Give the backbone structure.
Amino acid sequence: MHIEFLVEELSAEEALRNIVPHMISNADTFDIHAHQGKTDLLEKLPGRLRGYKSWIPSDWRIVILLDVDDDICLTLKQKLENIACTAGFITKSSACSQMNFQVVNRIAIEELEAWFFGDITAVNAAYPRISTNIVHKAKYRNPDAILGGTWEALETILQKAGYFKGGMPKTTVAREISTHMLPMRNISHSFQVFYADIIALLGACPSNSKL
């Protein structure tokens, strides 16, 4: 099996390059294609999927990953579903069976950085001055519901701990934290849905997620 990941920016690519190998077997392969933001990905997606449809092998799969940001999750997800359907693909959400789809559309709620808060052990391993006890504070207890933006929240705790006083470099932080991430211990619900979808996509087990 080969998986093509389409992501909106370089920080997501850096993170997935470290995380995905923990989700797939040594026999599986993957590649990641970063875009210049969500708007760029959405504008290019119809043509890109039409291109894939003209030649993609039967054992290849496509995973599209976007941050929800200020969008409505279900509306954004339906937009991705419509684009894939128009290109002639069966998506995981539309498939009658769990084994006959080639495209998975997945939304990170609210941003990719929520997945980092979901594995505070990895954050601590990359940046030891950040305590793992931070997850016990009400603000950070649910990584997918951090108010004010997870990117901003992560930058704030890093700067309070003495890191990146001049501003958080998203790509560097994504690479350094994801190096230590383990899928099974991540408490972010959106990450676990993504993880389950990758396992389902590889045919290891079914997933009932329709988000």
User: Anything to note?
Assistant: The CA atoms of residues 3 and 30 lie 5 Å apart. Residues 204-211 have pLDDT under 50 and may be disordered. Residues 113-184 form one domain. Residues 38-53 form the longest helix (16 residues).
